[in-house]
Fold this protein.
Amino acid sequence: MPSLSPRFADYAAATEYLYALKSVGVKFGVDRMRVFADALDHPERRYPVVHLAGTNGKGSVSAMIESILRHAGYKTGLYTSPHLVKLGERVQVNRTILSEAEILRYAGELAPVAERLGAGGLDEHPSFFEFMTAMAFLQFARERVDAAVIEVGLGGRLDATNIVQPEVTVITSIGYDHMEQLGDTLAQIATEKAGIIKPGRPVVLGRLPADAETVIRAIARERGAPISAVREIYGDDLARYPETNLEGDYQRWNAATATLAARGLSPRFPRLDEAAIAHGLRHVTWTGRWERTAIGGRPLILDASHNPEGAAVLDANLARLVQETGRRPIVVTGVLGEFRARALFEVIARHAKEVHLIPPHQARACSYEELERIAGPALSGRLRRATIESVFPDAQRCALGSADDIVVVTGSIYLLGEVLARIQPDRGAGEQRLQDY
């Protein structure tokens, strides 16, 4: 492992340090983060927090809650992961990302603290994710945000963010993903996600499977945490759900979840009335969730659908796209892990004209050979191996199909990040190696 030096001449040196932390591996648990935060005088206690967990939707719901607060005139912090292109996307104040200069400054400030805490061994040294979480907590405190929206990195109970005492806790969804860390039943996964529920703090539930909701309700009851649930308030009629400018039925479910969270915040944030909530939902931005854009005048859709629950949403969106256009789209995809790939390919096989495979530059990514094997005979004759450069020769061109073809990039969020770095160079050079769960 490289030496973890606390002195950085420039941003490149700081990111080398962070990469060295990442190479140690993921370390679950909140004890190190509590010690780290204590050494920093607990910046996370200086502003109200909304804390979110969930298999899918937590990024979109986080963005919606942030948009509601900001458009109501409040200064916001937003902490999410992973990033798409730049590391600083994880930490935003009023949707302005942490700059390279700020990351350099924080790395120089935090590294000596981390070195001191880790003097007893690597197991005591803050991890990459804990380091980024500390940056977020400090940035929000120093920028004097009115509220911070904090997304769990993975799971909930043992996540580094779980040292916060939230105004409102949100669990957006429960599905099968990260089962090696969280368990292989919905009840086990729900138990891990429900670990963010704090005594007496209100909880908002998105649309959850019944057995998962039963587990979460029991834990909330034990902790005296009152629950508001989307199904109880809005039922199953989509027409009753709040509208948002993000596309897809599931985004209206997410909008309902965000609405209930905003209502829970309203006693402390009096400008969060129903009109303000509706306005915020109509002006939310969140990249890569059935996002319609264009390249060289051609339609392009970017959609992160990386697990079975997400694949079910992708199925509905692709079916609607085919119905709208009368054409099957060209799909570009890559994914991490066979379990995710199987669910994704089942959907893609029903709708795609052809499929171009691009493994993301991540150690856990499925190779071409694995993707071809998993795709099987259902996609026989429609599979092609590709690269980012072959599909997008430059920022203004897509080399696939004809001008009338719609191209859908889907699968891993890491693949979307690589595509965005290629076609939107103003975002800056991609920082894919500084990724985690």
Summary: Confidence is low (pLDDT under 50) at residues 1-5. The longest strand covers residues 298-304. Residues 296 and 396 are 5 Å apart (CA to CA).
